[in-house]
Structures are given as structure tokens and as C-alpha cells.
Amino acid sequence: MVKIDPAILPRTSNVHYLGGKDYKELPAYLKGWEVATLLFADNESTKFISPTKTPEYLAAGNPVVSTPIRDVVRPYGDLKLVQIADNAADFGAAIATALTQREDADWRQRTDDYLATISWDQTWQDMVDLMLQRLAAKTPDAATAAGTQPAVKVSEVPLPDSAPRH
After folding, report:
1. Nearest to 30 by CA among 69, 68, 58, 72
2. Is 104 in the same domain as 131?
3. d(Cα 45, Cα 21) in Å, to the nearest integer?
4. Which residue has the higher pLDDT, 110 or 141?
5. Structural domain count, the chain
6. Are residues 37 and 107 in the same domain?
7. I need a surface site. Which of 71, 82, 103, 125 has the fewest CB within 10 A?
8. Going by C-beta distance under 8 Å and a sequence separation of 6 or more, which residues neighbour residue 73?
9. 161 pLDDT exceeds 80?
């Protein structure tokens, strides 16, 4: 609903616009959904968008259908964790497939297995490790030190007092 004029939205009895909600309310909403959808226009603004709702919806156990956003197609679509569709007919078929996934033990296990490999903390740690490797490769003394000292962990990296920690 961001950047959309409310006046152009359809007004029918089966469509309800709830307005902005607090993030902590999301689990209660997700509980009532059969399929989550990620609907994005195909334009320059969405070319490099990375919808963070994808893993959240999946973690809630909800099958997901998305328009073909690059960061949803790869990896989620490629791994058959999310259904991808770019037109109305395909979207309807994708929703029909997604409705069967909730009871698909293989899909649920593959989804859980994949989600267990991703987190903000892991991404941060991977970035720290990569920077340390690059520094060690450029500095002979650092390479020696890197081989004898333990790796830096996310919890050891100083952040400003205002930065959130998870």
C-alpha cells in the first residue's frame, strides 16, 4: 500500500483495507492466512527490492505466492519454497499449488531447513569474516595474526548504544 493513492484501489465487499498495523500484530494476522502474497509492480523501483517479509511468512508456516522479484525468485522460487507468477492466470494456479503446500511435509521441512541457514546475525558474521579474510590477505602481519587468533563474533563487534541487538 506504500506509494499508492487510496482513491485508485478497488472497493468491493470482499476486499478490506486495514491500514497500518504495529509490527507485533503480524503473528496474529498470519495465523488466519492460508496463503501469503507478495504483489509488486514490475518497474525500476522494484528491480532490486528484497522483500524481508518472504522469510517471515515462510517461518509462520504460510505458503507464499510472489510476483517475480529477483530476490524472491532466487533463492526461494528456485528452491520451490515460494510460488512465482507474473500474470493473473499463473497467479491463480500458483495459489492453488500453494494451498496444497501447508500440508506437504517435504515442503515444510525444506523450508525450515533453508530458513535455519539465514539470519541477520549470520549475514553480519559472514560480512565480518569476509572483511577479516580480505584484510589478512592484504597485510602479511594480519594474515599471521588471523591464523592464531579466534574469529570475531557478532556479539564482540562494538555498536553504538542506539543500535538494536538481537
Report:
1. 58
2. no
3. 24
4. 110
5. 2
6. yes
7. 103
8. 66, 84
9. no
